[in-house]
């Protein structure tokens, strides 16, 4: 503990000092008064493990944090208060006069210990915490610490609230001390070789992405994202957009959304407009189309509604804002995979239905067709189920009620209020509207209500139901949907440090609950007129729950096919898949849980494979394909879009599987040949790895690919945009189009940094340049018009011989620079500079600047600076 006296008495009106006044008795202070003036600072000191780390936790890894408390005007007394904070990495211990209690999940409480005698105004108390693993992002810290003060309701401590930068719109955590020390703060282990994305590193990377054996690719005159099978310029003249369009022939349905996008982009309906002919062609496969454009009009041939829809979306894709013509072209096109998906976690932090509609518009524009909605997890239940109102009345909200009588605990910095934007749910009626909205855009909504693990919101809600009905003397009804064995004494911590997040698979009421939920969800789909072919169970991360459950011991003793507790996950999945089959629905789940239960499952399973490739994740993919399962590739190496774009402490998101996933990395994915990535990707620590192929395939192929956005650190709808875009366009590119540079799968071939089997690296660079030009000069402007808050890439720069040189990731975005004390100026070519220089890019419409980086004209490069 360090106590620092603030010498303000006698120094009135100086910065940081308060004018003397009569002290306020702490007995008359409210929680709000204390919380508004309590300054908290959070500083990562060191990521290197030492003798203070608990060897039994996190493989011996831990990091140290200094947490500083300073009451500015009102004292903190010796007793009668506590602070509740979220820390997603479990806090192992504390040094100082406060005591630490782990509440549940990420929630911890700091309370005065016997050695704490109070804190006077201006005094600073420094505490040292040790937490599991490491922290190399300022956004690992969670906002909205709560002050518990005597008998008052808990309130948010003002100094820990998240803020947004007025100029960039990016997020800031003012209570977090900037991380600048590369060795102590920004390196996880001695083997961590991930380069930090400062201006110099990005300049070198952008240069490497444009270097080829031949001259750098020229900006394409026109093009499409995702790339079609073939696009051939024709001899006809281009077609003027100003003429507008008129639909003269149409044999299809569900096209309005695509036609509306034409209008949004300035190609509007007109009675005298160019003719659009939409005609059936029986020889084309599902979702394929042919598109012809010349000065006389537009013709689209397709065999299905989806094919005609995608033909119209390609017509819109050829529009370049600011240009009044469409090129004369012939396009032949068909999708690479039938499954082209996005997973969105609504459970951790909610996303309103209007934002979901905006997202579906963009999915449709780039031909993504599966929206996997994660509607329930430990932190929230987001779908109303008739007959079970507690699921949303309690389970859809997090607030300051730690007893959870009215809401769930305030995990992940949720704050105190039920009306917080991180809370909420879809009513039955609104969900039906969303299903129809998706259908009109040829998107299938795949519901997921995670079980048996990750089910805490449901478990708590059903316990409140049990208590209320029991109190009313309705014992049978109370137990009907209860999810716990009340005699279970199992002690466990889930991977997110919950003690009570798993429903019990050994009691019939769990399956009654699941049956009720499935019936109600199916009824919503039926009323919407939409098929429900696939339901995602979840099925992952049960963490040895039920091991002391008498109900489970009795089930194993009475069930011949069960020998031990390890088989209970498979038993659960087998029963739930049977429930789904009875309703005509196929089952999906995460690959790890399904793999654990593989011997107990029949065919017809869809596995979402999320094993990290550097950890032999491709072995699991191959095994499951060889079992005859449908496999959707969901690899964290390139498809977890909650991970950071670049290795920078000012970038948000988890990074347990990869520290940097920019659009180029997504673009460079070869989904049909997973081992080959060991030649040109690195592991999460920036080191080479080797990928052997002990489970060679014999013609089996994945069903498709799916991007994931988990939202533990996503607390704002615009941050959803920021994390997804523009990376989601690269996902669409790989899901729809197989590039010529992709290496055919070679059964049994091993790959590594020295095998040199992937010989098309120059072709990859050239194709990337084409894609990057289309992003920067064509597509980002469309995202601007649609109101998408995409990430503007940070700029690479170097100063050589006194001249500033700068590069952006996407050609076409305007670059700017500023010398210390000066104004922002356009950067078009190398310019002489002195002292500290900042560089940044602007959005395609020029209205929004991105985050800036600084560098020195003389001396070492500085770390990335600016608001995130």
UniProtKB/TrEMBL annotation:
Q: Does the keyword Hydrolase apply?
A: yes
Q: Which residues form the Chitobiase/beta-hexosaminidases N-terminal domain?
A: 36-201
Catalysed reaction equations from the record: Hydrolysis of terminal non-reducing N-acetyl-D-hexosamine residues in N-acetyl-beta-D-hexosaminides
Keyword Signal annotated: yes
**According to the UniProt entry, where is the signal peptide?**
1-20
Keywords tagged on the record: Glycosidase, Hydrolase, Signal
Q: What is its EC number?
A: 3.2.1.52
Entry-linked InterPro entries: Beta_hexosaminidase_sua/sub, CBM2/CBM3_carb-bd_dom_sf, CBM2_carb-bd_dom_sf, CHB/HEX_N_dom, CHB_C_dom, GH, Glyco_hydro_20_cat, Hex-like_dom2
Pfam assignment, any one: CHB_HEX
| Top EC category | hydrolase
Indicate the family of this protein: Belongs to the glycosyl hydrolase 20 family.
Q: In its UniProt entry, what is this protein called?
A: beta-N-acetylhexosaminidase
